[in-house]
Every structure is written in C-alpha cells, then in structure tokens.
C-alpha cells in the first residue's frame, strides 16, 4: 500500500498554519514538524500533570505512568528491552555523558575508532578522550564519494580497540551505512559499537535489536516529537560501564547515564511518537499486533514514499556542472538529506530560495570534518535540502522550480 500523504499531513498542525502556507519545508534534518499526538500529550501534561511524578496522588501517578508508557512503547518499537532505553536532554549531551563513562572504563593505550563522516556530536566527545591517554583512530571517508569502506575499518581493528563509533547515515553525505555489517565486523574484533542514528531515524524507526549495535542514539525533535535525546544502551555494556547518575540509581539501567533529572513533560510526550506510528499503521491496514512489527510496516511505508520523491531531485542536481552532489545519486542508497557543494557560498543561496517559498539552509551543519574530508571549505559550506515522509510531491516540484531559478 502506498503512503496516504493526505492523511499524513493532517496529523501535523504546521501544514494548517497560515504563516506557513505556501512554504515548502526542506530543512527537516535540522528538526521536524511535530505531530498532533505529541502536542496533545505535551499540552495535557502541562495542564493536568505538571507535578513531581511517582507520588501516590492521582495527578502524580498519572504523570509517572505516562513517562513509563513512553519508555515502554518506544523501546518496543526499537526492538529492545524497556530499561535499555534512556531519555536525555539531547543526543549531543547523551553522547558526552557516555564518553565520560568510557573515559573511566577504557584503559590507557586502548583505542576508540571514530569517523570523519559524523556530525561533531558523535565525534568530538570521543576524540577528547585522547586527553586521557586513549588512542583515537579515524576511519576516513573516500574524499570523492564520502563513502565509508569496511576494508578500511578492518585495517584499523585489533585487540586494543574497545569501541567503534559511526553514523547510520551522515547529515551531509546521506548514504545509509550498513549497521549490521559494520557491527558484525567490530564485534568479531572484540569491540563495542555506538551508532549515531540522528539522521536516519526521522525516515523510519529502526529495529535496533535486529541491527545489533550496543548503543544507538537519535533526537526525538527530528522524529516528530519533543526536544529530547533517545538513547539505547544494551544491557551487557550498560551494566559494565561506570554509573554516571546518582549513586543510589546505579542499579537502574535507564538511569545510569542520565545524571540530570529528566524533563518529565517531554519524556511523557514522547509516547505521542508511538501513537503516531500506530495511527499510520492502522490507517494503512496493517494487521500486525506487535509494536515492533507495526513500526517496521510504517518504516517501509515512509522509505518507499521518500525514495520515490527523492530520485527526481537527485537527477535534477546531478546534471548541473556548478553543483557537486555529496553521496550517492541513487535514492534507495541514501536518506533524503541532500547536500550540494556549489561554486559560491551556500548560505546566500538558501536565502535566495526563501524568496520562492523554499525553507532550506546553508552552512557546515556541524559536519566540518566530513566537508574537509571531501575537500570542501566549511566556511563556504553546502546547501542542504532535507525532507521526510510528510513532504508532498508538489513541494518537490516547487523546490525544483526554485533551484532552476537560483542555480
């Protein structure tokens, strides 16, 4: 069954706003519109349940129950155990906390592998561990394509490597990396795996349990939800690493790596993301009873629709002499996050597109190392055009027409 784009857009109040009428949103990689179920839950929490949760009185009991519901349902969607999922203030903050745990656990002279394809949030905190005597090895992208070659990874692995960090897909290259294959290679060498899923999860929640990494992180404000970081840490590793939370919470896995108190309302509102998955599954006739299976159904709906919309955009920009497309030119190999290196600074070009009702961005997008690795001046930046499953075909047409005028 094809995605019912009309039904999808009705779930997002932004598309009914007069201020956004005629504006085509192509900066979804920076943050998505929020779906109605999340807004409903957030509003209800602030009005009815904005109290300290887990006390015996009714408002508090309901507040705690809704926070628990969010963890239970999102963990099921991701194919992991409930206590293997944590909420934190952002993915950047969650990664920083994890890096501090590894700082205490990894021995001097042991190694961590990072890539130069990453957003800085999944690179910088690990690289700083060199200050503690931990060796940092860089898995470098191909300078022409931005691709990560697994042969290069195997050459970096030995008995000293404790962790391999890489993105599910880069926020500028867009290519979808084979998490299962890379994880298997790392595990075979005795290393744990940390995957940054921030740029992939908006295009369908992954089954982390099947993919196999030990850590998987993404940002719910890019998956139609509140401004939270969602972090999966599998039990084996989570219980091995030093506790970073309050000492008396050290025996609770989902509290071990959240040293700050959670934002109760935003955690509770995250259950709205599961509501949205269920809405799409039911509307499109999915008869699966399990949340993981429903999420997989919705994932494929989203991906098929996005691939169909993405290929014309890739074809349109690949033929321009003044434009360098970063990453693959085949839609099935990548996320719909399209970065273009131009023969001029990108930010003014984004401003020109705004005159035609196209909301896009220009800059380095915190992927400075990736741009440098492909010979692109980060100061000049790239034009990034990113969309997701709620983008209409008419908006793709609007974008292509605007690009014709501006480029």
TrEMBL record:
The keyword Transferase applies. Coiled coil: none annotated. InterPro entries: Aminotrans_V_dom, PyrdxlP-dep_Trfase, PyrdxlP-dep_Trfase_major, PyrdxlP-dep_Trfase_small. Residues 25-399 form the Aminotransferase class V domain. It comes from the Bacteria. Keywords: Aminotransferase, Pyridoxal phosphate, Transferase. One of its GO terms (molecular function) is transaminase activity. Pfam families: Aminotran_5. PANTHER family: CYSTEINE DESULFURASE (PTHR43586), PYRIDOXAL PHOSPHATE (PLP)-DEPENDENT ASPARTATE AMINOTRANSFERASE SUPERFAMILY (PTHR43586:SF21). This is Aminotransferase class V-fold PLP-dependent enzyme. The lineage of its organism: Bacteria, Pseudomonadati, Pseudomonadota, Alphaproteobacteria, Rhodobacterales.
